[in-house]
From TrEMBL:
Family: Belongs to the metallo-dependent hydrolases superfamily. Hydantoinase/dihydropyrimidinase family.
Species of provenance: Strongylus vulgaris (Blood worm)
Protein name: dihydropyrimidinase
Cofactor: Zn(2+)
Organism taxonomic ancestry: Eukaryota, Metazoa, Ecdysozoa, Nematoda, Chromadorea
One GO term describing the cellular component: cytosol
Length: 128
């Protein structure tokens, strides 16, 4: 199935312009003016007066993080749901192992907590 976003204001890293956006197989297939609706199964969204922009990236999160006997308020489910609700489609979380835990074991633990959740998760590892 394809999705055609018509008449939006496309925002990228350095400009804003009126355009249509065609999405096919989950990927952007075209950006331009007056993209046609020919073809089979296509959902058309009228974005007149609305901004069309890529999802944001939060490069510094601490989801489900154990620290000094406490755990962060948001786990990977609630944290990524909140992120997506605000337009963030990727978070980069911090892997912070305790002193007895090897970094690779900590990474595997964070990966288990994070997979599969709502959006894309990447990690930074703190090395003590």
């Amino acid at each position: 199935m394809s999705i055609l976003i018509k008449n939006g204001i496309v925002v990228n890293d350095d400009s804003m312009f009126a355009a249509d956006v065609l999405i096919s197989d989950g990927k952007i297939a075209g950006v331009g003016s007056s993209i046609g609706t020919s073809g089979g199964n296509m959902e058309v969204i009228d974005a007149t007066g609305k901004y069309v922009m890529p999802g944001g990236i939060d490069p510094h999160t601490h989801l489900q993080m154990p620290f000094m006997g406490e755990v962060a308020a948001d786990d990977f489910i609630s944290g990524t749901q909140a992120a997506v609700a605000g337009g963030t489609t990727m978070v980069i979380d911090f892997v912070i192992p305790n002193k007895e835990m090897p970094v690779l074991a900590a990474y595997k633990q964070w990966r288990e907590w994070a997979d599969p959740k709502v959006n894309s998760n990447k990690f930074n590892a703190n090395l003590f």
